[in-house]
Amino acid sequence: MAKSVLSAKHFHDEEAAYAYLEGKIWPDGPLCPHCGGFERISKMQGKATRIGLYKCYQCRKQFRVTVGTVLESSHVPLNVWLQAVALLTSSKKGISSNQLHRTLGVTLKTAWFMSHRIREAMRDDSLAPLGGGNGVNGIVEADETFIGREPGVPKRRGYAHKMKVLSLLDRETGKARSMVVDDLSAKTLVPILQENIAKEATVMTDEAGQYGSLGDKFIEHQAVNHGQDEYVRGIVHTNTVEGYFSVFKRGMKGVYQHCGKQHLHRYLAEFDFRYNNRVRLGVGDIERSENALRGIVGKRLTYRTTHQRG
Q1: Parallel/antiparallel/unpaired status of strands 163-170 and 139-147
Q2: Which ranges of the chain would DSSP assign to H, the alpha helix?
Q3: Lower Cβ count inside 10 Å, N or C end of the chain?
Q4: What is the reported pTM?
Q5: 253 and 276 inside one domain
């Protein structure tokens, strides 16, 4: 299967778009998603045949490269999908469904669903512990922030009525990992930190009480006291993860404006993905789009499950 780099022709020619995606998903040739066969497969060539359609003569079923991916059963041309992926991955603070709707010429409903499917492709399933790579005892910053409003919780002073987000950032690799949490108690947060951070790592936080026991869980725990206007003490700070939050909040408030809690994990996956594939880490726009497309396999998101209320 010929390999190619994502380029303008793939954005405007659906046949070229299929050839490109087949080269990425099937580097060794077509593979039947129904039975796993690869020997008795042929491309269908009829005039009325859909672009990119194959037939497996072992199980007698037809398929395209999008079967078994987040693009499965979509009626949007594949070249338009590639445009959407490029737009969403190259916009630092995201791109709204209204903007996708206007740019791509699809309905607003379609643009909204497309963006969520792409966010699902951006979700990282390789959750190796942070702070323990390359045999180095790394430094991981941990901090929480608040966004939007918790469903069913009346508005009040403070942050109790807001949705809570925990983010971890590995200083050595420059990679972030974020998740939605129900509360900020030690009972909730400490197991999450233990699951996502290597034991040999140094964890840096602010002075929040829920982090008080981390010194027993990791090789070292250091904290800065924001309540006493202490933000940096040598290498001890949480400024890197707070820099991540600044981009996340600008995008959520300025571009997306509103997000239901049932969707927040996908928005976090989007901002994590762009942060972890940024130019400073040597990833350009083309490579970032290709990295997102590699994540489409083995994931499925239907409109019904996406649109249902939490």
Answers
A1: antiparallel
A2: 8-12, 14-25, 78-90, 97-104, 108-122, 186-196, 239-251, 261-276, 285-294, 303-307
A3: C
A4: 0.92
A5: no
